Amino acid sequence: MTTLALLPDPSTPLDEATAHAAFADILDGKVPDEAVARFLIDLAERDETAIEIAAAARVLRERMIAVKAPVGAIDVCGTGGDGQHSLNISTAVAIVVAAAGVPVAKHGNRAASSKAGAADTLEALGLDLDRASARAEESLADLGIAFLFAQKHHPVLARMAPIRRAIGRRTVFNLIGPLANPARVTRQLLGVARVDFLPTVATALDYLGAEAAMVVAGEESLDELSIAGPSRIVRIGPRAGELTITPEDAGLPRHSLDAIRGGDAAFNAAALRALLMGEPGPYRDAVLLNAAAALIVADRADDWRDAVEEAAEVIDKGLANALLNCWIAF
Known about the structure:
Elements: H1 16-27, H2 33-46, H3 50-63, E1 74-78, H4 89-99, E2 104-108, H5 118-125, H6 129-134, H7 136-142, E3 145-149, H8 150-153, H9 160-167, H10 173-176, E4 187-191, H11 198-207, E5 212-218, E6 231-236, E7 241-245, H12 265-276, H13 282-297, H14 304-316, H15 319-329
Helix pairs in contact: 1-3, 2-9, 3-11, 4-13, 4-15, 5-12, 13-14
C-alpha cells in the first residue's frame, strides 16, 4: 500500500528544498486532491515567493517532454487570467518576431479564462496542433518557429486539471507554465496580470537561469504591454532594472482596450490574418509594441522606436504572413 505524502504548512514561506519536495509529491500524485487544493489556496492567499515559484517550475521542467532549440531562441507568452479577453497578442508577436529572424519557441495552451487561447487561434488558422507538436524541433530548426502545446509537453499537469477547476481561482500553476518552456529558452518576454507581482516573477525567472528577459504588465492588470497606457517592466540580464513605458515612447498612439477586444477562435484568427496582411489599427499597434520588446530581449534592437520599425517592416513586406503559410503547410 502506497503511503501518501504530507505537505508542509504553507502559512510561512518555504525554503527551496521543502518547496521542491512538496511540488514533486503533488505532480507525482502522492498527495490527496483535497490536500493539494488546500495547499495551493493557502499559498495563493499569502502570495507565493520567488523561491516557491522557481521550485515549482523546476519540478515541472524535470518532468516535461523537452525539445531542442537553436541558440538565441526566445518565448513570448503571458500567464493569462487578466480578464481583458483581448485578441491574441503574443501569438501574433511570435510570428512577427520569428519572421524577423529570431527563433521563437512559442509555449501555449487552449483558453482557460479567455475565449481563445494560442492553441485555439492557431488551430482556427489551419495549424494542425498534433503535427505541429510532433514536428516542433524540425519547424523550429527549419522555419524558426514552433508551437509547444502545453498539454503535449507537460503530461503531468493532466492530474492537476480537475483540481484547478475545483479551486476556480489563480494558483501557482498559472505562473509556472510560462517558466517551464519545453525548449528551455533562456530569453523571454513574459506577461503577468498583476503589476505588484512583477518583481517576484522576475526573481523566479532569474533563479531559473534566464539570460535576458522582460517581465511586463499593463497598469490595467494586463498580461502584456498595454497599448492603452503605461506598462511596468522588470528586466533581468545585462540591463537589469525596472522601468515604465508608454505607447508614445515607442512612437505609437494609444488605443482603448475595447479596440483590441477579442472573440472566439474564428474571430481572433481572422483578425490575426488581417493583421499579418497589413491591416492598420489598434491590434497592429499592440502587436508592434510587444514585438519591439521581444526584439530587444533577443538583442536584435536597443531602441524601442527602431524595434517597432523593424517589426512593422516584417509585416508590411509580407514576411510574417508568408511564414504563417509555410508553418501551416509544414
